[in-house]
Amino acid sequence: MIGFVKTFIKKWGKDNVGVLASVVAWNSLTSIVPIMVGLLAITGIILQGNPSAEKSVVTHLSAALHGVLTPKDLQQLVKASINHTGILAIVGFLGVLWSGSNVGGAISTAFQAIFETASRNFVKEKLLDIVMIFVMAILMLVIIAGTTAATLVTKLFHGFPLSAGLALIVGTAIGVVAAWLLFAAIYLAFPHVKVKFRLGNVWKGALTAAVLFTALSYIWPVYAHFAHFSKYGAVLFPILLLTAWLYFFALIVCVGAEIVAIGAIDEADKEGEEVGPEPQETVPQHRVIRDDEPNGQGGKQQERETATAGR
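Above: the chain sequence. Below: its structure as tokens.
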């Protein structure tokens, strides 16, 4: 355990996780609009004929964005983006997909450093990033579930002998499970690592990230109150609040990824295999704990060269 903590601290510093989290947070912030448009468009199709349910989704999403976009703003964005026909509709839809895919690209870039691997082929990467739009759409629903789970449980069990404390525990458990599924999907999809080295380690990183994410959901209102973002005015306040939240979320993603990466690299080294394609030593690709050759062969080669030089 002590060895793992030392390795984690070493890798955390060498990977420059603070900068990686900033990249993910910034791209998430600039992709919020296309992600929301895509989510609301899909929701509108599914909930067609149920305006009250559609209104509820819009209201909850606005709350998840900390008031940066009002329910009216979200509805107008959807209309402006998809209320076209023919070639304009196709161009608008492709624009939403391309803009939203920036989040997936940022996560993949950060994971190159964390998992110490090279990047994917551009086409494969972009297809994966586009899929990430729908994952981020699910994320917004998880955010809502994580912050209001206790209230939902209380309503569901109305009339039953369920105390406030028990409702909070059950609601928190629901939030942790939902977040675990989300982070597990991220750690399974984005690292450019052999599948067999991912599967056995994903649950540990996802569980850690899910617990931290749920804790952030409860601590955030307190932090936001004492951070005094409101002094920047009614316009900047919600933007700064959302930016800070996205940064903390990105840090949590990186914490879980570091745990998965350490386990995957160690497992690959023990089996004498490569964890993934060799890093090309370009930014942000590098090596921290990954050997030049698996199973310690790089270290042995260095020892042989040293011995030869001595003779």
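Residues 2-31+101-310 form one domain.
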